[in-house]
């Protein structure tokens, strides 16, 4: 597939570099939006590592993802100021409304919820980022309005 040949090209760009594994993984994620698990055996072979070692690196750095991103990413602040202003209740409301699975994805693939620990908007807690855009002083009604725009 086209995806496989892109990955193969990136592997050959990086494989001779000392410490090339991390730059390679970043390059794959930048291009494809994720690092497909199916690519692990080829990557491991190219870097003379075991598949477990490659998976270990992928899971150590939380920014890597094994599947394509959802259409919308919602990062709800879970740090202290937002916690004290009700971010946990927002998280519960989100789960109830969207049926998120354990990985934080809605059943239709429309939304993924990920935590973040402080968005620098503590004075306007609780805060969240929806597709990179900051929303502050989010209450239940504001959350519902944001969700309505994400879920069909
Ligand atoms: Fe949530 Fe700082 S604690 S923005």
Short description:
With 152 residues, this protein is an alpha+beta fold.
Widest sheet, order of strands? 2-1-3-4
What is the string of SSEs from the N terminus onward? Answer: HHHHEHHEEEH
Overall form = elongated
Helix % is 40-55%
User: Which molecules are bound besides the chains?
Assistant: FE2/S2 (inorganic) cluster
CATH architecture descriptor of the largest domain: 3-Layer(aba) Sandwich
Task: Report on the biggest sheet.
Answer: 4 strands, mixed
Q: Approximately how much beta-strand content do the residues carry?
A: 5-15%
Structural class: alpha+beta
The CATH homologous superfamily of the largest domain: Glutaredoxin
Any overview of this molecule?
This protein is α+β, with helices and mostly antiparallel strands. It has 2 domains: 2-60, no CATH class; 72-150, Glutaredoxin. 46% of the residues lie in helices and 12% in strands. The protein has 7 helices and 4 strands. A 4-stranded mixed beta sheet has the order 2-1-3-4, covered by helices on one side. A hairpin with a 2-residue loop joins β3 and β4. The site of FE2/S2 (inorganic) cluster has 12 residues, from α5. Residues 77, 79-82, 118-122, 125, 127 line the site of FE2/S2 (inorganic) cluster.
Keywords:
4-stranded mixed sheet; 7 helices; single chain; 2 domains; Glutaredoxin; 46% helix; elongated; alpha+beta; 152 residues; binds FE2/S2 (inorganic) cluster
Please describe the topology of this protein.
Blueprint: H1 2-14, H2 21-32, H3 40-46, H4 51-60, E1 72-77, H5 80-84, H6 87-98, E2 111-116, E3 128-130, E4 133-135, H7 140-150
Parallel strand pairs: 1-2
Antiparallel strand pairs: 1-3, 3-4
Bound molecules: FE2/S2 (inorganic) cluster.
């Amino acid at each position: 597939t086209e995806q496989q040949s892109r990955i193969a090209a990136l592997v050959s760009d990086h494989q001779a570099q000392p410490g090339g594994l991390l730059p390679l993984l970043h390059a794959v994620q930048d291009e494809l939006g994720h690092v497909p698990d199916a690519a692990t055996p080829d990557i491991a072979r190219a870097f003379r590592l075991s598949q477990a070692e490659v998976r270990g690196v992928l899971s150590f750095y939380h920014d890597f993802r094994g599947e394509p991103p959802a259409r919308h990413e919602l990062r709800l602040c879970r740090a202290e100021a937002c916690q004290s202003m009700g971010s946990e209740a927002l998280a519960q409301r989100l789960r109830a409304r969207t049926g998120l699975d354990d990985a934080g994805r809605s059943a239709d693939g429309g939304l993924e919820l990920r935590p973040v620990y402080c968005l620098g908007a503590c004075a306007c807690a609780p805060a969240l980022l929806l597709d990179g855009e900051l929303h502050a002083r989010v209450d239940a009604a504001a959350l519902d309005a944001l969700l309505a725009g994400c879920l069909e």
